[in-house]
Amino acid sequence: MEAKEKFFPGLDGVVAAETKISFLDTIQSEIVIQGYDLIKLSQSKEYMDIVHLLLEESLPDSAEKEALEKVLKGEYKIPGELIEIFKQLPGNTHPMDGLRTGISALAGYDNKLDDRSLPVNKGRAYQLLGMVPNVVANSYRIIQQMEPIRPNEDLSYSANFFYMITGRVPSLLEEKIFDRSLVLYSEHEMPNSTFTARVIASTHSDLYGALTGAVASLKGNLHGGANEAVMYMLNEAGSVEAFEELLEMKMMKKEKIMGFGHRVYMKKMDPRALMMKEALKELCDVKGDHLLYEMCEAGERVMEREKGIYPNLDYYAAPVYWMLGIPIPLYTPIFFSARTVGLCAHVIEQHANNRLFRPRVHYTGERRVFN
Predict the structure, then answer these.
(1) Does 262 participate in catalysis according to the annotation?
(2) 12 an active-site residue?
(3) Which of 49, 234, 277, 297 has fewest C-beta within 10 Å?
(4) Rounded average pLDDT over 339-352
């Protein structure tokens, strides 16, 4: 009889890959990105810096950063056929499904699709980084029967993304906060979507296939979809007292409360959430309306007192996006767009030093015989 292998539900604590891209240092409470603390980076660096760091393995100087943004701006345009594809999608299509369809379709326009070499994969990553914000914004707009918005190359990468989502040019504060959210969402070691992308890439599948799978993974409300759920809860409550009551009612019914708890951050707040909490305070100060901030703080106190769990990034990113005027259904697609650079880095690394993922199972069924 075979010896029973030790079983780790959800692969909890199992090391599945070696990487130099990032890791979560729970001892030092740092999110390490190519050797740097992501939280410190988010305080002084922009998303373009993180893109260069993840794909070129170094922080750019001003000339490199300017050149990188120019490259991405040259990739903003998406094939016109994608617009026609989006027009064929039903009106109730979730934006993540529109995004998934768009990324999958882009594979057909790559005339080097079977080339996994490092230069081609990097070029592919930059093309996707240029096009994904366009796919996110305009797949949503077309599904909602609105006119698509053309990219504005006079704006920064993040400001253009914001403009295509909302139809207006952001203020300097709005641009800074939106860009910071992209930085914080950019990379986070080995969550489900990244693992999905690497598993797909390990079959020697292409970058589009790996990212399409990652979209499907991120759509789930136990992963990326949590930010949408948080905002629906806040809007349902509408006041500090009602939000506290809503959380207590959900706990009494043993319902999962989105925006709290994390597989890695078990005994403290997700440090990325703290950065978004500060951003929410800034937006509330400018607008003279602190209701959402007060509601979130009240919810934070309730969950710490009753469950001993703390906010994750989605809990504070949701009200930040709301204050920025971003439609709730786009919260998770924005998360994916920001994470595209991290996903591309992982797929490139997997292709460069590949071993096919092929785990085993702990069989719990019967052994039967028949005559």
Answers:
(1) yes
(2) no
(3) 297
(4) 97
